[in-house]
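Entry:
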Amino acid sequence: MPTITAKIQLYVNESQAESLRLTSKTYQKACNWLSERVVVSKNLNQRQLNNLYYKELRQRFGLKSQMAQSVMKTVIASYKSAQSNGHEWSLVHYKHPSYDVVEDLTGVRQATEKVHVKNRYVSVSWAFYQFRQFLEYKAQLYGHKVMVVSPKYTSQTCPKCGHVAKRNRNKKTHTFTCGNCSYQSNDDRIGAMNLY
């Protein structure tokens, strides 16, 4: 059976919006509660965490089955991501409000007009300003803030040791290798990590 992925937008009344906010806050609290147990046990095995904490997650936070499983997957993924990024083992905390960070793309159209003709449409057809406006509007609805930051050197700076060098990034292979500490990853991922 094929999988169909749909992107939908929900229009809710104030009562439904409050219910969504409450659900989000409960989910955040459940993630923090489980994170406090995972940081001590260092256990990232979903089956074992399920056996240890599933019932208590549901009872303590009033979560439905699928939501309790989602909390476990979120916490496990956060710790695994921190490990893969070379961070020391420490408590992952889920806090509010969250921030959406975007690059300041002022002048990007002029820079991309130097692109080869056959690739120009893809490069210059994005409506960056319009996207930013939509993002800021949606963020405001959910109590988030959009931070606009300079993208300068984000794909050339090592998030582990801070070493900045143009040769750290290989644009052709989209890879990043730090010339100082040898940390490696995808160059776009490095840029996103440095924006965060």
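The longest strand covers residues 99-103.
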